[in-house]
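Q: How would the structure tokens look for this protein?
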Amino acid sequence: MTTKFEMLENRVRKTARHLGKWAKREGVTCWRVYDRDIPELPITIDTYDGALVINDYRHLDEAGERGGGDAWLEDVVAAAKQALDATEAFVKQRAPLQHREGIQYEKLENAGTWRTVREGGHAFRVNLSGYVDTGLFLDHRVTRAKVAAEPGATMLNLFAYTGSFSVYAAAAGKRTTTVDLSKTYLDWAGENLALNGLTSEIIQSDVREFLVEARRAGRTWDVIVVDPPTFSNSKRMDYTWDVQRDHAALIADVLAVWSRSGAVWFSTNKRRFKLEVEAPFLDVTHATTPPDFKDSKAHHAYRLAG
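A: Here is the predicted structure in token form.
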């Protein structure tokens, strides 16, 4: 009788053969190999140029234990490594469906394991073990390319994280402004830009405060991308951020610095998110979900054209 771990190994091997051809053709060296395909195996497996990052989404019981314990996870890791002939695997244990909720700013190790990967003709530095997230959200691969292809000379990247949208846009010839509250991530964004021979105006600021100052200064941008966390209560902020509660006011501030050419992009990974604005944004979630993601709600994405 085939065990669920053998099922996992077979599924991962089959997917890798199928998507591996696509990844090679697209010049992508980091992609999702397994996306919680089997209900009894609630994990994701991403390959970063052969090194695996495994996210464990098992539910926690009242005692704080995950079903199957460490032995279950060891079997999962062994099956994934066997299927992909991998020698490295880094495991991240998450709360169920937790992703991009401000927790990416939590450090797991002092240094972590750094790699350089490629996507869309660009190079990016990723940290496979130092943080809960690696520094590159793979589900936004298509979104990054679409934002870069928008008409317009200037691009504003809000909640910029490690600057991947800025890399794409700057490579497309746009003058970019990259804004985030974290100096750590802005330094990382600067490294990503330099790695590709690019530059950007980099600003450390709370996004809402930045938008107030930008409007006061009369600044505008042709293309604006907004990809905020679902929730944040950073000690560097004097308020809490909730994307469902606060997105309408944020988008109003964004539209005040938009030149009305190009486009405004807004995205969130809150699974039950409902866009509540009057502006005629188009839901482009399906069009921006990459072929390696089975989860149709990996993110929500919306576009407002000029």
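The helical segments are 4-26, 69-84, 141-148, 164-171, 183-195, 207-216, 243-255.

Confidence is low (pLDDT under 50) at residues 96-105.

Upvote if useful.
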